[in-house]
Write a structure and sequence with these properties.
heterodimer, A: 475 residues, Arc Repressor Mutant, subunit A, 3 domains, 3-stranded antiparallel sheet, 15 helices, B: 472 residues, Amidase signature (AS) enzymes, 11 strands
Chain lengths: 475, 472
């Protein structure tokens, strides 16, 4: 019997607003404990929440990008539960009337596109953090009230790989929109997974488990792989999957059930009477629409079309908005966009990876890459020299022309000059010439090396080759 | 005898340079020291006069504030053990506005714990006594404010009203109490009981004082999302106007549940209104009979959530001994809250639980809509609706303490105004055979405090009990 996994993901993204969702406190990460707090986010008696409009704007942005239905009327609801890092004893979230419904995240998998349908997206506030120390437990409320969007997919994914692609695609989009930095390790993007298995071909969903505590894309996929296999094993042995929440244990690579006590939640959702219903009019949506950037898929298609670069290169370039914009600025400077792409993808990203840096950190201006490609194309420097020039550009941020000039790296293309050099080399290496004549044609490489040595690599290799062959044949 | 004066009388005296606000403060402090041991109107009163540099209409005159609103730097106990050690770190918006208009403060008044009650008997700091008869309750939950104003321990005070908590004690203590339209006065800094019902309002000795305080505390507050963007107006201009030709509805059916004293008083008040040119006619409120039941689902539901923050983690009371987090929660809340608060938290938790939500909470919300519809229809025809504020005179201390349902019914006439957001005032309506004050409630459509002030002021000019207040 063949089994099929069914996966739905719940993703929380922390929004990059300057202030919290219901008060004016800063959302900056990493401040000393309880320094970004006020009576409102601490849940002092007598305080009231006031909605940060920016949060709504960001939600609308995401809704437009994912083709969600934007509800003109939505409500905040209280999710009631006790926990020390939940200052009010309830979390302000949305329940019956979320801001966004429907829509889809498009993923690229097995060489084609697939739409992963969404259930809903809603706004809510983050809780604080409980820190357990040997002498007791401490609560840091800096994070309490940081705005979140919870993105709930429909249970329509069937492999860990699909789930991984979904996450990557979603992350790419929220980063493009500039609404979330998508950093899973720091917790600004968090993912829980609902997973069940069923016999392939059946419509009815199997009993699901909820997986938590996965702190990277890799671990989401690993946890799903493990859990799917575990559930299939249970079913194969004639057992039943128990509906429960399971924690991914990174170290042992398995999922473990959470104590059942913590699961029996009764959240007693009800509309928050401290907040009025949220009304969104068409104008607001239109205003936000005007701020939408070009999204990754559109950009990808345009790059292939407009610059004629290889699709696989374009796909890497659009991975990050900054990288894509960098490429585009460089490509505009050059008649050879594919060469520009090559330089960026192999050389620039290579250096940046080596140094653990990002595209925004590089000293090289995109226009300079374009110029470098131009220098090679015009034959002013050789491809090999260009690598040296590039290294210098990477280190200093200097213009390639300046480097070429200062270091005297301009290619020797004067045929007369090269001819003279060829003659010199042939004369001082009679043995090699004999070998060539005897049929060892690869001796030509030796002669080229000699000439490059004399010219410090500046001689135009094409001309060198051509003249060498000519002179040797004449002998 | 400055403590006997009304706020507007004192404003004039200070204006004319005949009285200094400090003298008023001292007069009040003296009165409090004589009286409060017996009345117990205050949780905390202030020994030191803290002058207010800002020149404003209130001229530095001292007011009392119910102890569920914050005055920065002063304790806010909500008459609960849970907040017995809590010091406010900011001013409630209403308090800030009073300060900006030159007010000073004499103290924080007693209330039913977290404003849950109709008698102040649930206060952690003991019951407040009715100054007219100290064997009786002053009403509640703003019993401390009403008793203080009636007994001369305060000139005027702020109260809060969730189901009648301003009007019912005002009625039982023979003073004026106004619950404004929901959203008129910012709730920021008022410790929430039931957020969709709570409203701050004045408790004063006459209607003019209520208008003066309303002028100050009203207005949109960006810190309260439920506060209304409605222009603040000068309510004093509605005083002493003719109410000739006004259409007044009276809910006659309600009188059947009232004591004979109250029925007689209502008949008298109808005659007075008619003599002032009003046309008084009986009205129907088809859903009013469900109002108390409705309220006791919605208010506890909201309260159960609003009071979840008192968990011993961040501030307030924390139980001393516990072996783990769960036990800390349980002991803290068990010891920190009184019986009535716990009853309502349980009730509210129950009605919000899955499986019961639709049957109780959702149904109650629908009913709330129907009650609102009743009133909306009436206000198309009537300028205002009158009823007794309470079905009886002040009851004896302990009389209803063990019977919550009986206690809840004492708010039968006041609750509809909270459920429907409309403004309602209670003004003195004579005395019972036992010489205890009774109240007349006047309700108008949302944001029609103008009508309330017109009618209340005209009525008061014809009929008041100011000379009978227990001020001596």
């Amino acid at each position: 019997m063949e089994y099929e996994a069914v996966i739905g993901l719940e993703v929380h993204i922390q929004l990059l607003t300057k202030t919290k969702i219901f008060c004016g406190c800063s959302t900056d990460f990493g401040a000393p404990p309880n320094t970004h707090v006020c009576p409102v986010c601490m849940g002092m008696p007598g305080v009231l929440p006031v909605l940060n409009k920016k949060v709504v704007e960001y939600a609308i942005k995401l809704g437009l990008a994912l083709n969600c239905r934007i509800n003109k009327f939505s409500r905040f609801a209280r999710k009631n539960y006790f926990y020390p890092d939940l200052p009010k004893g309830y979390q302000i979230s949305q329940y019956e009337l979320p801001i966004l419904e429907g829509g889809a995240v498009e993923i690229f998998i097995n060489g084609g596109y697939k739409k992963i349908a969404l259930e809903r997206i809603h706004m809510e506030e983050d809780a604080g953090k409980t820190v357990h120390k040997p002498d007791g437990s401490y609560v840091d409320f800096n994070r309490a009230g940081v705005p979140l969007l919870e993105i709930v997919s429909k249970p329509v994914m069937h492999s860990p790989e699909e789930a991984g692609e979904y996450l990557k695609s979603l992350r790419r989009i929220v980063r493009y929109l500039g609404i979330c930095d998508g950093n899973m390790e720091e917790g600004s993007l968090r993912c829980d997974a609902n997973v069940s298995v069923r016999i392939k071909g059946e419509d009815k969903l199997g009993t699901k488990t909820e997986l938590k505590n996965m702190n990277s894309f890799k671990h989401v996929e690993k946890a799903l792989e493990y859990e799917i296999e575990r559930q299939i094993d249970v079913l194969k042995e004639g057992g039943k999957v128990i509906q429960q929440t399971r924690l991914w244990d990174e170290k042992s690579g398995i999922t473990k059930p959470m104590r059942s006590k913590e699961e029996s939640f009764e959240y007693r959702y009800f509309p928050d009477p401290d907040l009025v219903p949220l009304i969104i009019d068409d104008k607001w949506i239109d205003d936000v629409r005007k701020t939408l950037p070009e999204l990754p898929k559109e950009k990808l298609e345009r790059f292939i079309e407009e610059y004629g670069i290889k699709p696989e290169d374009a796909r890497v370039l659009v991975e990050e908005r900054e990288l894509a914009e960098y490429f585009e600025r460089a490509a505009k400077e050059s008649k050879e966009p594919q060469s520009v792409a090559n330089w960026i993808l192999s050389e620039l990203l290579g250096y940046l990876n080596r140094d653990g840096k990002e595209i925004k950190d590089t000293l090289i201006k995109p226009e300079q890459i374009g110029k470098l490609v131009e220098l090679v194309e015009k034959g002013i420097i050789s491809g090999k020299i260009a690598k040296t020039v590039f290294k210098e550009m990477y280190n200093s941020g200097d213009d390639p022309e300046k480097i070429v000039k200062e270091k005297g790296l301009i290619q020797i293309t004067d045929r007369g000059e090269i001819e003279k050099l060829v003659e010199e080399v042939l004369e001082s290496n009679p043995k090699a010439v004999e070998q060539y004549k005897a049929g060892k044609k690869n001796t030509i490489g030796f002669f080229v090396g000699q000439i490059m040595k004399k010219t410090k690599g500046k001689a135009n290799p094409k001309i060198v080759n051509e003249l060498l062959v000519k002179k040797l044949e004449e002998k | 005898m400055l403590y006997k004066k009304t706020l507007h009388e004192l404003i004039e005296l200070v204006d004319r340079g005949e009285v200094k606000p400090l003298e008023v403060f001292e007069s009040l402090l003296k009165r409090i020291k004589e009286k409060d041991e017996k009345i117990n109107a205050y949780v905390n009163y202030f020994e030191e006069y803290e002058a207010n540099d800002r020149v404003g209409i209130l001229k530095g005159l001292p007011l009392a504030v119910k102890d569920n609103m914050h005055i920065e730097g002063k304790p806010t106990t909500c008459s609960s053990r849970m907040l017995s050690n809590f010091i406010a770190i900011f001013d409630a918006t209403a308090v800030r506005k009073l300060k900006e208009n030159g007010a000073t403060f004499i103290g924080k008044t007693n209330l039913d714990e977290f404003a849950m009650g109709s008698s102040t008997e649930t206060s952690y700091y003991g019951v407040t006594k009715n100054p007219w008869d100290t064997t009786r309750v002053p009403g509640g939950s703003s019993g401390g404010s009403a008793a203080a104003v009636a007994s001369g321990e305060a000139i005027a005070a702020l109260g809060s009203d969730t189901g009648g908590s301003i009007r019912q004690p005002a009625s039982l203590c023979g003073v004026v109490g106004l619950k404004p339209t929901y959203g008129r006065v910012s709730r920021f800094g008022l410790v929430a009981f039931a957020s969709s019902l709570d409203q701050i309002g004045p408790i004063t000795r006459d209607v003019r004082d209520a208008a003066i305080l309303m002028n100050i505390i009203c207005g949109f507050d960006p810190k309260d999302s439920t506060s209304a963007r409605v222009e603040c107006e000068d309510f004093t201009r509605y005083l002493n106007q003719s109410i000739n030709g006004m259409k007044v509805g009276i809910y006659e059916k309600s009188l059947m549940d009232c004591s004979q004293d109250v029925q007689v008083a209502m008949e008298e008040s109808v005659r007075i209104l008619e003599s002032l040119g009003c046309k008084v006619s009986p009205i129907e409120l088809p859903h009013a009979k469900y109002a108390v039941s409705d309220y006791y689902i919605i208010a506890p539901a909201e309260a159960s959530s609003n009071l979840a923050r008192y968990d011993g983690v961040k501030y307030g009371f924390r139980a001393e001994e516990f072996k783990d987090l769960k036990e800390m929660y349980i002991k803290t809340r068990w010891q920190g809250f009184g019986e009535e608060v716990k009853r309502r938290i349980m009730l509210g938790t129950y009605v919000l639980s899955s499986g019961y939500y639709d049957a109780y909470y959702l149904k109650a919300q629908k009913l709330r809509g129907l009650i609102k519809q009743d009133f909306d229809n009436l206000f198309k025809e009537y300028h205002c609706i009158i009823s007794p504020t309470t079905p009886t005179e002040a009851f004896k201390i302990g009389e209803k303490a063990d019977n919550p349902l009986q206690m809840y019914l004492s708010d039968i006439f006041t609750i509809p105004a909270n459920l429907t957001a409309i403004p309602a005032i209670s003004i003195p309506n004579g005395l019972s055979k036992n010489g205890l004050p009774l109240g007349l409630q006047i309700m108008a459509d949302v944001f029609r405090e103008d009508i309330i002030f017109k009618v209340a002021s005209a009525f008061e000019r014809e009929f008041n009990i100011r000379d009978k207040l227990p001020l001596d």
